[in-house]
Design goal:
With 198 residues, the protein is mainly alpha-helical. The protein starts with 7 loop residues before the first helix and ends with a helix.
């Protein structure tokens, strides 16, 4: 690790450009910066939600829901990663892993930016048709499929891949073990989403 402290921007680009060298540069003190990333994701999610629904009267609820949802989508999988890593690897820094998983959420920042653009351009007809493509919500199998599609979309898979690097860096573990920890945590997250409104 270099002796000069990296800036927030340098750490973001470091993680995106080369996760294997970028994540080891993230420290416990970067948790606040990670929380800022999640907050921005939440703001963008709220913005897209308001535009999609074209609903001005419920704007405060949509805004709060978008931010709370962003933090939920970060904290719950992160907690499950921590539990899985504790069982399969051993001890590591909780605060540092939370910072790292927040940085691993950077693909979701891109996803929410694209949602904002899409919300402004999509027609009501196309929006209705898109909603109709989801699996029916009745039945356990279809609910699990819906949640799996939501979690393991392109941006979710990129987040999972970055989480593997985060786990490997935080616990100094082989990538294969970090992959097992991360996949198990995300499968548990999908299972929780099937039964709980998270």
């Amino acid at each position: 690790m270099s002796e000069t402290k990296k800036s927030f921007r340098e750490k973001i680009f470091g993680v995106l450009r080369s996760p294997s060298t970028g994540f080891p540069q993230i420290e416990e003190d970067d948790l606040r910066k990670g929380i800022l990333i999640i907050f921005i994701i939440g703001l963008l999610s709220s913005w897209a939600g308001v535009i999609y629904l074209r609903a001005r009267t419920t704007m405060p609820f949509l805004a709060i829901g978008g931010i709370v949802g962003a933090f939920t989508r970060w904290l719950i999988p992160s907690a499950l990663v921590l539990i899985s890593a504790k069982i399969l690897i051993g001890d590591g820094s909780t605060r540092r892993l939370l910072a790292m998983t927040a940085f691993a959420s950077l693909p979701q920042l891109a996803q929410q930016l694209l949602r904002v653009v899409d919300a402004y351009t999509i027609s009501n007809v196309d929006l209705t048709a898109l909603r109709a493509t989801l699996f029916p919500s009745t039945g356990l199998v279809f609910r699990a499929m819906n949640q799996g599609v939501k979690v393991f979309n392109v941006f979710g898979l990129l987040t999972l891949a970055l989480t593997v690097y985060a786990v490997s860096a935080n616990y100094r573990s082989p990538k294969r073990r970090a992959l097992t920890v991360s996949v198990l945590a995300y499968l548990a997250y999908i299972l929780l989403k099937v039964f709980l409104p998270i």
